[in-house]
Amino acid sequence: MANRTDPAAKSIRGTNPQNLVEKILRSKIYQNTYWKEQCFGLTAETLVDKAMELDHLGGTHGGNRKPTPFMCLVMKMLQIQPEKEIVIEFIKNDDYKYVRILGAFYLRLTGTDVDVYRYLEPLYNDYRKLRQKLPEGRFSLTHVDEVIDELLTKDYSCDIALPRIKKRWTLESIGSLEPRQSVLEDDFEEEEEKEENDQLDGFEDGAREKDYRGRSPVRERDRDRRRDRDRYRDRDYDRDYDRDRGRGRERDRDRERDRDRDRDRDRYRLRDEKEYGRDREREREWEGRERERRDRDRGRRRSHSRSRSRSRDRKEHESGEHRKRHARSSTSPRRRDGPEDTREEPKKKKERKEKKDDGTDHPDPEIAAANKLRASLGLKPLK
User: Which end of the chain has the lower number of beta carbons within 10 A, N or C?
Assistant: First the structure.
């Protein structure tokens, strides 16, 4: 309940006033001891006493980003939302500078663009010193006008993102604000009047001395020398001007020549690119035709080899059938001779094999004789 916004408070920029502070910083403020002990139960009247006790300003500091009492009081003002007159009195307070900064910071968060410029710009003339706590925990010296300039020109101050406001010249153009008048403008006008008076006095003294001196030959000779020097200087200036003009023309001519050369180079490059594109198209067409011809020839070779294989298979099939028929015709006479002839033929074959296996039929007569002897002894023949 202590962290809730006042029910009578109005929404600012379409949201809860406390939401103008980021959620992380808001939670750190709620957990801070100064917020729990010193800011509990404060009202718009009792808030002034706590603001008068401030001795520095700042956002967060230290490793755990601890909020300063200044930031806790800003959060309390957003929570209770004091009236506009009270905030203006804070700003107009000349005795307590931190009270003035507190009111200016709150107005920058919640006020309109016109009110921000109207009430904060006069504080540019306050040059009092302020203590500001840096994020590292150290203190630095600043001034009231520097803090006001940061509020009006920057988007981030005291670890809080400031709402965007319109530029001053925009408000002046639409008539919402009058042109700013500096407090030092009267001093500037007095300085300008003094300078003008001093110049007039100097002119009068010079004219009086000239009348007193009158005309002298030495002065006239100096005047003639000065006139001749000016004439020669003008002639040198004209000559230099003509020379520079000639150089400028040459420079323009060179620039035109370079431009024409670049244009011709671009034209030739485009033409070469077109010709290269045509050559590439012709090469692709030729490659396509060659590919089609190779595919056609390959198909023909395959069909020819397939037909040859078919004819070879046909011939082999026919030759096989012819062999079978011939074998049948050759075996028929044997069948006619009877079973006795068929029994005699295997016996003859066995006898031939046995003779061959003995080694007695070897072409060398000595080996044949040795094999016959080994066969009688039951040994293997010599080869």
Answer: N
